[in-house]
Fold this protein.
Amino acid sequence: MDFDSPDVMKDFPGLYASELNKQCNNDSDYSDENEKAMKKDLIGKRKEKKDKDKGYAALEGESSADENFKSRSPSKTKKAKSFKFSTKTKEKRDKSREKEKDGDKKKDRDKKNDKKLDKEKGKNEKTKKLKQSLDETADIGDILPIFGASIEVAVERSRCHDGVDIPLPVRECIDYVETIGISFESVYKISGTKSKVLQIRKMYNQRGNINLSDYDTPTITSLLKTYLRDLPEPVFTNDLLIRFEEAGAILNLNTREKHLKILVDNLPPYNKLLLAWLITHLHNVSLNEKFNKMSKQNLSTALNHTFHCSSRLLHALLHHCPALFPNTRIERYVPPLESGAKLPEHPVEIDRELKKQESLLTQIHKEMNVCCISKQREELLWEVQRIITQLKRKLKSANKDKEVVEKVEVVEEKEEVKEESQEPSDTHQKKQNLSSVPECQCEDISPVDIEECDVNTESVLDNTLALLQLKNDGLHSLRDSLLKDIQEERNQILMLKSQLTPEMPPVMMIPNENLDEVMDLFLKENQILQIKKINLVRQIIEEQEMCIELKAQIISKS
Amino acid sequence: MSKKPTAQPALHKVIMVGSGGVGKSALTLQFMYDEFVEDYEPTKADSYRKKILLDGEDVQIDILDTAGQEDYAAIRDNYFRSGEGFLCIFSITEDESFQATQEFREQILRVKNDENIPFLLVGNKSDLEDRRKVSFQEASERAKQWGVPYVETSAKTREHVDKVFYDLMREIRARKMEENKTNNGRGKDKSKKKKLKCTIL
Ligand SMILES: Nc1nc2c(ncn2[C@@H]2O[C@H](COP(=O)(O)OP(=O)(O)OP(=O)(O)O)[C@@H](O)[C@H]2O)c(=O)[nH]1
Ligand SMILES: [Mg+2]
């Protein structure tokens, strides 16, 4: 869940304001404190609710490890700090800001604040007011930090614009180690300069331009470790960590692998992806043991604290890496082009670049909706927009030259299938799908029939090809409709969130123990249902895939 | 943006605003590439840069072509505050678009908080005289009331297309010079980016 979406900010201005003040109080450690307190306050969710009946039929019961992990989990040890505003620290902060950017810029900012006063008369008075109050005290690194945010939020705030949804700092660290640090002796074991690490962290939080190749390997590995340590909960999630530990301790290799696989597949998507990349990367590092002296065992002991888990678990994951993450390939990140760079010529490349640029543009717009962005960032906004306009023009003129007749046919065909699988979860619909099959069949298959009389082998080939084509189309449309569903659900979430908020404050203010208990109960129940839902959804998808396969077979057979 | 003096030519940032379909993109494309497109394709946001010679001085113009369609209004608003001058466009064949200029003007003033922000009221599609719904008189009066120039253009025939962009840039340039002067005079405050080379007094 994204607790920090603009909507939430809008709805809890008070909460965020106090967060800000708090940040001023503890400058050094603002990022993770901030995020955690926010989460706690927002849902009143208590971490103790490590519930025992997770619904993992495949796994054995609780081990005694429970207590250990409770105390290890980072969010527990933090104490609430008072929300007092300290002018001293604020001054300090202002000074340091002045140091970084030159004086002119700061004046600019002040001036802008004045202007904001008027802007808030506008439609979204609430957000505008919030924006303005934020401008005075903090910059984006304080309001929307990347380090210390949950994985999903961090991805949202700091995307890799090529569609790999892991936070940019992690991706860039991995890239660095894969290319420069892979044969560095004792990589991930030797720590880097702390001040430098903090400096880079700050730059990431402030969305600055960072060139990691200016730093040495230990600094970069320490940065990656800092990122992981700053996470509000382990990448394995608080809820599943124990299960992971249990699975990692299984002696039988096959069983261990099977159980780990199930757990990995049950992680939230962002956690799963991040884990996949990290483990695959570390696996790569261990393959270069000859040079870097870091075996799987060494890596596990060097990094288990970073991962908030035992070295045994880490070792198990590294050992089973190829089986657990067979599809993960470390791909070097190519950021969106900057202005002045030569734009691609081929339509496919143009399209890919366009997606990157649009992703970046969306991100900047999102930042602007929450707070005042830096002058450079504003400049970038125009620049990115300009590149997008250029790319679109290129694409248009490229498309004009191309023949589109063929495409139209394919699209029509797809459309048919799409319509059928519009509502995948509906069983009635499914029946209809099957009954509607004969209709398509006559159109699609007739040419094959004619060929069959002539050449036998060719027709067999054609048949399998047609079958694959049909399956492919079916899967494509399934994907489309799933994506649509996801979007719809996201919208629903946003809507529900906005409905939810007016009732929240009174609930939180009543110090009723019963209510807390009920809340706990509901939370637990909710989680169980959540997991059941995930399993059901997976079943549905599998069945859908079967349906597609069967449909394709029916069509091609008859 | 580089703060270093000279080197880069001055950059003026212009924003096109107005209702959907009045010809913001058509004017922009005519100015940029000397082309006119008959088909209407609503804009989300587009940005262009062009090097030009303004009264013997090399300058760059950044044009941001915004969406008239309300669907994209949120995106549009984000650009307003970095705009240095505005072309507020309506179509002389559509009274509604003329009425809408009032709201655009107010919004811009709200964001910029500056009555004297470089601004032109532009009545486009002057080639469609036979379908005119907004009289020259009426539009000029509104412009006068706002204290801004009024110009009629045709993105189709290119009439006055260069004029509106150049006139606006001159206003922006004059505005920046003025700001620089007050800066030098008072030595503090009102700092804007010094894109113009400061002339020695
Ligand atoms: N005859 C004539 N047609 C014009 C003129 N300017 C624009 N058009 C036409 O009006 C339609 C809309 O023009 P656009 O430039 O796309 O309108 P827009 O203001 O950019 O619209 P949005 O992007 O939706 O805000 C197009 O079909 C143009 O061909 C003009 O000066 N004369
Ligand atoms: Mg347009």
In short: Helices of chain B lie at 24-33, 73-80, 95-112, 136-146, 161-186.
